[in-house]
Each structure stands twice: as C-alpha cells, then as structure tokens.
Amino acid sequence: MANSNFRQENMVSEQTCILAAIDIGTNSIHMVIVEIDKTLPAFTIISREKDTVRLGERDPKTGNLTEAAIARSLASLRRCKDLADSFKVEHIIAAATSATREAPNGLDFIWQVEEEIGITINLISGYEEARRIYLGVLSGMDFQEKPHVIIDIGGGSTEIVLADAQEPRFLSSTKVGAVRLTNELISSDPIEETELTYLRAYVRGMLERPIDEIKRKLKPGETLQAVGTSGTIETLVGIDAIQTLGELPSPLQGYQMSRKDLKDMVKKLVSLTYEERVDISGMSEKRAEIIVAGAVILLEAMTMLDLETITICERALREGMIVDWMLSHGLIEDRLSFQTAVRQRSVYKIARKYQVDLGYGETVANFAVSLFEQLAGVLHDWEKSERELLWSAAILHNCGVYISHSSHHKHSYYLIRHAELLGFTEIEIETIANIARYHRKSTPKKKHDAYSKLPDQYRKRIKQLSAILRIAVALDRRQIGAIKDIHCKYDEEYKKLHLHLIPSNSQDDCALELWNLDYKKVVFEDLFDVKIVATAESQLVIN
C-alpha cells in the first residue's frame, strides 16, 4: 500500500509543478502562484499577492531608487518568498520593469534582492515586457482570428501591442505611466485646466509614433478589437461595472467599457480631489493618487486608435512570464495551438478539477454537437460560437455531482459560473452555466433570476441549446456509450424528426436509452414544434 501511495504521489509530481511569477513594477509588486498541469498543458492560479510599494519613487537629483522605496520592496519580496515557500513552490521567476531598468542603482537593487532574499530577478526591456504581456493575454483570451490591440498601463510605461492569433505584429513600450506622469506633470488637486491640457497633449505626443505604426500594420478592411490589462484599466473598468450593474463582476474578465463611458468618467475624475476620488466605489486609496493620469492615457489611446470599446483581460505580464517559462521548458510546443485551444483547454481543466467523468462527458458532448450540426438550418440557425458553448456545457453538465447528486444541475450552474473559464466572455460563461443548469428537471423560467436577467437572444440560446443537451444526455442513460452514432432526418410536412440510433453493440437493443429519450424528448418537441421518432437498429420505435 505504501508503495502504491508513493507511485501515485510521484506520478502527480511528474504531471504537475508549482511555479511562482513575480512582477516588480514601478507602482507595485505582484506575485502569482500557479499549479502547472503538464499534460494539458495549462495552469491554475492558486494564490496571488500584491503590494503597492512605489518603487518608482526616485531621488530627483540622482535618479536613484530611494532607500525608502527599496526598503518597501525588499519587505514585500520577503513576504512573497515566504508565501511561495508555504506553497512548496519549485521555481520562482521574477522580472523587473521600467523603474528598475531606468534607475542608475537598479542593478544594485537586483543584486541586493538576490543576496538577501535569494530571488533572482531578470531585468527585461520594454519590448520584452510587451511580448510577455501578449503571451499572458493569449493564455486567457480567444482572439477568434481577429486583430487585437492590447493596452497595458503600468506605473512607469504603457505597452501597446498589435497582435492576432498567430503572432504579435507590433510591440511597443512608451514612457507614459500613471505614476510617472502623476509625479512629473500633476501638482494640483483637483488638477488644474492648464495641467490637464498639457497632460493630454503630452500623452498624445508620446503615443503618436507607436499608434501610427499600428495603423500602418493593419490590413485593408480589418477592424481592431481592444483588450485592456493591469491595475489602472482594471480599476477604471471595475468602477464602470459597479456604476452600471450595481456590483463588481467576479471574474471581471471579459467585461467591456465604452469610450463614451470612459470619457464621462475622466470628466468626473478630473473635477474631484483626492479625498473625493477615494470615496468612489471600487477605488483604492493608492490607486486614487494616480488614476487621473492613468485614465487620461487610456482615453487618449482609445481616441487615437478610434476604439469604441475595450474588454478587460485579467491576465498580463505575470501570466505571460509563466507561459514563456512553459515554452522555454518544452511544455508548449506550438504557441499557436496553445492559443487556439484556450477555451477547450480551460473547459477540460475545470472538468478535471470537479472530477467529471470525461469519457461520459465527451460522449454526451459528441451527441450534442452531432445533433446541433445535423439540425443547423433545419430547426435552428445558430452558428459556430453557439456550437462551442453547447460543447462546453455538455462536457461540464454533470460537474455539480462534485457537491451533491441531489439537484446537481443547480450545483453545476454555480460551479461553472464561478469557475475560471478562460477565453470566454462574462455573458458566454453565464450562457454555458445556464445550458448545463437546464439539462434536466425544470425548463428555463422567467422567475429564475440568473436566466431572467439575460437579454432575449441569450435566453433563446439557452432554451434551444439546453433542449438539445437533454436529448444528448438521454442517449447515454447507462453511461456506457451504448449508442455509437445518431442520424437525423426531418420530415417537414408532418413535422417529425426521425432519429436513427446506431448501437455500439449490435446485440444491444438500447431499450433503456429509448425509454429515457421518450421521457426527456417532451421539452424539445414543445420548443421546436416537432414529434421525435427514434429508431435503433433493432427497429424498436417510439411513436
């Protein structure tokens, strides 16, 4: 027994590893601790740490990092090291950006950290920072073959990346950051009109070259999608979400803010004192000090790029450091396949987390997708994106059993809704969770709060896709893969849908599956106004 346990533990350690990534920025030090599953490959965030240390606070005469800023940073990094040790982290990777890069004593600070704490810091260029931000966003978003511009506003610099699903087309790092511009250009509170005018003109002048280059690299007819990352943009988007929805979405990933709403927010922020900014719901004390400069940077960038909306991505430099480590250690052979499979990989990761029987889940998903494709243009007009939502819900529909078999469909909704499903927008996650929720028992009803809050088009998706999922679930009632294939034929004149079922075993009459289908088909029949006639190769028919 002891040997068996040892083999199991050894196998787990070979399949997974614990990694910590530390981002030492101008404004703050962030650490993320992840468990890497080498078999997918994917990683799960298991802990985060953040300290606002203002490392970019420099001596005005020498340009050196101040002793106070270094002391705050050393204390923060010691806490990071202690937390990493408590999680039995196998590797710590750390990167320092503009504040350390520009300070004459930046290398001295790096050596001091290594000597006193034992953390080796890589000093990276602005372009390398932009590249890793791109990798981080790739790990959490699906670009769907469209060009994206990634905007990351840090304390000392702003990285703007033009990228598609294949590669970053253009990387830039410009010395306009929320801390830098606050220190150098803002002395009044609230900011005076003359300072605001100069701040805007300065930002436009600094961003002009990289933005012109991005425009030149766009192909004819291409429309940019915008992604925002890191603390300043997360704060602005979070404030907008609270004001719009009355609460902060969790996760914030995928939430969109319009340029119009941002413009209105900037107009309000520049009229407020620091104390008044702190009182805004969603604003921290430290962020309130630098938010005016950060908001102006974002608004000017969106205006110059003619972007109407921006979507938040909660992954950035730290996660990009992890992806880069995985690439360099041979865990990801093809970055493109890693990107295009982000949704699928995330669904499988959540399925594994909640101990879903993947053989059964994949069987149901295959049936659901087969029905979806055969009925496309016949009973429904949904497209590829809805197919993917249905597949995801089918894989995860039974995950609620992890909590309890009783009402497991409701537990499935909760687990999916609050899972870290990467690559999906907030409303797509809500849709997947609802499709899974209605694979059994009650049909969607307006008295169900989560369902009733959705727009009509999404409610229609949920009704029709969950009805298809019910049929797919019925066709694997014994969860043994008794049915190998389904062939659909629709008789429009008599409004009959013929399902011809091919058993995996020619001697199996699939009686239990046919009986369960007879029980489950009513929702589908009422919704699509058809009569289902199912026939197995044994010629047993349900009329």
From TrEMBL:
GO terms for molecular function: pyrophosphatase activity. Residues 342-520 form the Ppx/GppA phosphatase C-terminal domain. The keyword Hydrolase applies. Residues 32-329 form the Ppx/GppA phosphatase N-terminal domain. It comes from the Bacteria. SUPFAM superfamilies: Actin-like ATPase domain (SSF53067), HD-domain/PDEase-like (SSF109604). Keywords: Hydrolase. Belongs to the GppA/Ppx family. This is Exopolyphosphatase. The lineage of its organism: Bacteria, Bacillati, Cyanobacteriota, Cyanophyceae, Oscillatoriophycideae.
